[in-house]
Amino acid sequence: MPVLAQAIKASLECRLKYRISLDRPCDVYELITQHGLDLRFMEVTSLEGLYLADGAAGQINVCAHRPSGMQRFIAAHELGHHIFGHGAMIDRELDYKERFSSFSSDEKLAEVFARFLLMPLRAVHTGFKNIGAVLGHLEPSDVFRVSCWLGVGYTTLLHQIRFSLKMIEQQQFERLIKTKPQQIKELIAPPDRPYGRGELWPVDVHWDAQRLHIRVGDVVDGLAENSSSLLFSLGSSRYRAENVGETTCPIKGGGSAMLSIARNPYVGLYKYRYLPEVEDAGI
What we know:
Layout (H helix, E strand, L loop, with lengths): L2 H15 L10 H7 L3 E5 L6 E6 L2 E7 L4 H16 L5 E3 L13 H14 L2 H10 L9 H11 L3 H11 L5 H8 L3 H8 L11 E3 L8 E5 L3 E3 L9 E5 L2 E4 L3 E6 L5 E7 L5 E2 L14
Parallel strand pairs: 1-3, 5-7, 6-11
Antiparallel strand pairs: 1-12, 2-3, 2-4, 7-9, 8-9, 10-11
């Protein structure tokens, strides 16, 4: 079986095995724990990710200083190495775009596995349908909203829908790629202070029952009024994550979402990521 087909098949089988609907986002962090693997966020900034294998066991390491969407992609890539039994792997630089001609066959397998685990065709179609977007007339804010819903970066999703899924034409891709995510954030939800390393999560009723892995300083737009001590109200259904912990919040228009808030950056094991009393250095 060709490398690409093998990777796509494995990603879809993984979703089905763990009962992750093909038209919903994949919580890759929880999926990793279901595989019996340790997940660690590491301080080493010279690496994107690291997979350590020890027989049937293993550990996935993700750089703690990367944007949220990139961290999820790294985690999915390293999970791919585990799925295919590649043994220990060090990834200094991953390709979140369309070209990886210099990659080894193992890296290509892990790369395509990650793309289709996080961004399968049905989930991408559903994301755009949820917000009423028309594929032939996408705006940057449409792509940004769907990328957040899927838990990936804006540029990563753009390359997936252009080069892997063939959902948009090159001219449209070139127009959309010119817009920077920072510009889109400020248009959707003007900040009370620069976003900096913080993310914007534009939730709506289609995020119901979803878990948001976010960090202190991130802004969640679209929540109904709530009094969680973990959040600071910015007005207009907009809240900034202020403290580490977990809370379930109602969504404006209906439904609710769980917010799992970590330090920014967080260094340590995933299972301690949302415990406010745990010191990074002790994990």
